[in-house]
Known about the structure:
Shape: globular
Structural class: alpha/beta
Oligomer: single chain
Bound molecules: guanosine-5'-triphosphate, magnesium ion
CATH architecture of the domain at 15-237: 3-Layer(aba) Sandwich
Largest sheet: 6 strands, mixed
Strand content: 5-15%
CATH class of the domain at 15-237: Alpha Beta
Amino acid sequence: MTTVDDVPATEPSTGNEQQSKTVLLVGNPNVGKTSLFNALAGLRAKTANYPGVTVDLRVAAIQVRSVDSDPHCQASADLDLVDLPGLYSMQPASPEEEVAAKCLRGEFQGRMDHSPDAVVVVVDATNLSRTLVVASEILELNLPTIVAVNLIDAAQAAGTEINIQELSNQLGCPVVPVSARKGNGLDTLRETIYDTVKPDEVALPIARASCVAGCTGCPFAARFDWADQVAGCSTESRKTVSRDLTWIDKTLTSPLLGLAALLTVMLSVFFMIFWVANYPMQWIEMAFGYISETVAALIPSGPVALWLWFPLATLLSLAVFAGAYRLNEMKWTRWSTGTAVAVSLLIGMLPQADFHSLAVDGVIAGIAGVVVFLPQICILFFFITLLEDSGYMARGAFVMERLMRRVGLPGKAFVPMLSAHACAIPGIMSTRTIESWRDRLVTILVLPLLTCSARLPVYVMVAALLFGDSPGKAAIMFAGAYLLGLIAAFGTAFLLKKTVVPGEAAPLVMELPSYRLPSLRNALLTMLDRGTIFLRQAGTTILLISVVLWALATYPKIPEAQLPVDERQQAQAALEYSAVGRIGQTIEPVFEPLGFDWKIDIGIMTSFAAREVLVSSLSIVYGLGEDAAEDTDLLVETLARQTKPDGSPVFTTATGLSLLVFFVLAMQCLPTQAVTKRETGSLKWAIVQFCYMTGLAYVAALMTYQTLAALGFA
Ligand SMILES: Nc1nc2c(ncn2[C@@H]2O[C@H](COP(=O)(O)OP(=O)(O)OP(=O)(O)O)[C@@H](O)[C@H]2O)c(=O)[nH]1
Ligand SMILES: [Mg+2]
């Protein structure tokens, strides 16, 4: 997968040409700033129940109105609302805290180089005293400030009542109780923001005395005392919060039981994926079967009709363009446009039979092969988001951190590692939360070893091939593949610590977030986002590669004279004669010791651009076209039926597992490489990553195949 889960964001207007006013959302990590930002702006930026999810500033244009029951009398103001990374103190300890501190001071060069017009300090109603500490520092900046007490729903559920008026008196600024999740209090917050930044009034800063003024001891301790005292005056607990959860936490964070719990949870999720996803997968197969038949019937027997050529040519040209645009780090180039035009012209010149084959065997089969995995990906993210939101994942982090530090990975790498299970790219981006360069580099280098969602289609295919009749075994194989990625990442980190980047990783200081009822809406939205990203990928990169592969597998055409008489052998002979056949046979010796034949090699070669391409490549190489679109089990059946020249089957347990190991470990994602280069600032590390991972994959697959073959599984 190649996309960063960002919502479109605009740069805030800067300096003199500033039109709308700027309002910052600040506060401790994990207090719900991004949730509030999304609720106010109607957006869907990533949120999760652990600190450090937002690492850069994000801006949205919103409108706030004055209070007036008559809508005609309401005045409004346009604002730039800015979501910032979490901040513990104005003396930043990490790069993302520095972003927030600089924005508050109006010193963030180029992006926020003017003082904000207002600041909304978000605090957590369930943890008021801790989250108010930073508020004391922000209030001392003497900017127009509003305090939003978020998670008010959770506090009420826990029996905590907050006296808003008292809190407002103590802080000397407006205080608004809100629930970003439920949408409560948002209108009042909007109105309060309006009152603070009225278009034609200059809001006067409110002078406040510092809570550390005259303090002779530790200023931090003074701030903590102040926050405790303010929270104490304004909070009232109706019932004592049940402490039952502590024994749960003791179990969930204990080294052995905690690890066992984590494994059990993940295994159950994988089992669900197989079980539930079956139904929607069948519907998708049926839909593609229908599309494929309809298109095949529509293609005329004469020269290609203009109305058919036009949509297909447009689609492919757009795919070429989008693919090139992405690889070029979202920059437009002349060659991408040129290629797009050339492709559409070429399509126009195709003879009718080839056009038919391109539409059905190239485009439809290529996309269908990948899109069937959409349900599995959606279900995975649905459950992961529920787990993240509930606060369980933070316990998982706690269990893993002991292990991680031993191998030289910083505790803070846990969040990037979680994201990398969706896609290495947001994972690598979120390593910005790691202060030490050494720790950050190690994390970036090992992240792509973790199983990202692009590997899922390959895992599913191998699972169906080897354990089609047993979901239990398939789930174990799945968990094994995830575990292998994790072990490889840990092993590599350890190796790096002992060699290229020596040193000890910094310990993790993270508060365990309280358990929260996960939001179904958030889980559904994340699922939708992930699904869209996956489809976008299928519609661009994969479509493009499918078409290129189709062309290479179709041309040059075998001369009539050389065609075998037996019809079943004709397709095989044509493929061997084509460009793909020749390339495959040339590189066959390289992968032979791993148990792969030249057709699998073609799949491997094409999937260096993006892993999930393997599945569609095999559909195309095995000439399944129309049939594969109707029935993806057919791919598995066809693969299972393949034989080597000596008559023995190609896909034995040894070959299947060797292929799986190769895909777990190899660096097969161009966009990730581009991001590694950008984040480490040098091509060197991207090359190191590629060579190391691919070398490791080769050796591990070789060992897998040879060992299993020796044991008689080949
Ligand atoms: N119950 C409840 N949960 C909330 C509310 N607002 C946010 N959450 C949850 O709190 C967690 C943290 O939310 P985020 O919006 O990611 O917090 P953040 O402050 O942006 O965190 P960082 O970006 O890590 O600094 C998520 O699991 C949210 O679903 C709320 O009003 N009520
Ligand atoms: Mg956030």
